[in-house]
Design a protein that fits this description.
The chain has one domain. The protein is built from four helices and no strands.
Amino acid sequence: MRSLLKWASTALLASHAAGLTVDVDDPNSIKEVTSTIAYGMMKYYTGNHTGDVPGNLPDPYYWWEAGAMFMNMIEYWFCKFRLAAVRQSHRKQPG
């Protein structure tokens, strides 16, 4: 529940920046907005392409930015569903 509340607050903040509308009293609205945010974040990820490094973002992003992104994806995965890219990157980058 704590993680869902964190996602709801993230969704609320992102709704102002991205023009998304979220009703924090409606679980479906929260899921829809967080899904949109997660999809947008994963557009930057190329680790599932042949020859790229799983668990890392391409230049000009640094390792800590990839870490922050994947921490959010883990929390999203926990709240909504399992993402193959999250599992793959964490098996590849254990440490």
